[in-house]
Structure prediction request, 169 residues.
Amino acid sequence: MRLITDDGEQLGIMSISDALRVAQGRTSDLIEIVPNATPPVCKIMDFGKYRYEQAKREKIQKKHQHVTLVKEVRFHPNTDTHDFDFKTRHAREFILEGNKVKATVVFKGREITYQDQGKELLERFTEVMSDIAKMEQEPKMEGRQMVSYFVPEKGKKKSLEATKPTTEE
Prediction:
């Protein structure tokens, strides 16, 4: 097997018993790194330290991951202009944070007969959101709700952030 020290120095090709003897002389562990290579590659290092550093790297990678959430904005077929604008503003913030937005029109009671108003409301919502988001799913009925999904559009979001004025005092 090919033997490497923990600081990357190559000790050459030797038998397993010789490699174990060298590892014991350095009070370290012999770890097989690449078993499928010819000859297999082993490294002399402290296994506890190796596992600790590996866990630390994984923790840092987890920290830098962005989890996409689905935020919901609910409307009714007769939602007023101010309420529509207020909810749309929140949806824009959600999109700029990188989350998906689920736009829902909820029909209560006899409002179910006004599905065309719900569709118009979602079309208006789509127009307002078109500069930073794209529609992932066309409006469709799910029981007594009309649902549509929106996802951030990468190129448009960055250009919008670049033109955003910065307030410095």
In short: Residues 75 and 105 are 5 Å apart (CA to CA). The chain has a mean pLDDT of 87. Helices lie at 16-25, 47-63, 81-96, 115-129, 154-163.
